[in-house]
Amino acid sequence: MPVYVVDKPLNLTSHDVVSRARRALQTRQVGHTGTLDPLASGVLVLCVGDSTKLVQFMERDSKDYLAFISLGAATPTLDAEGPVAESAPVPDFSAEQVRSVLSAFVGPQQQVPPQYSALQVGGVRAYAAARAGGQLDLPARAVTIHELTLLGQYADLSTAPHSFAPDADGRWAGSETGLNLSLPPALGDFPTLLVWARVGSGTYLRSLARDVGAALGVPAHLSGLIRTRAGHFGLAQATPLDRLGEAAGLSDLSALSLPIIEAAPELAVQLRQGKRPADARQGRFVVLLGGQLVAVVDGDGERLTVVRAWA
Question: Does residue 37 carry a catalytic annotation?
Answer without folding.
Answer: yes
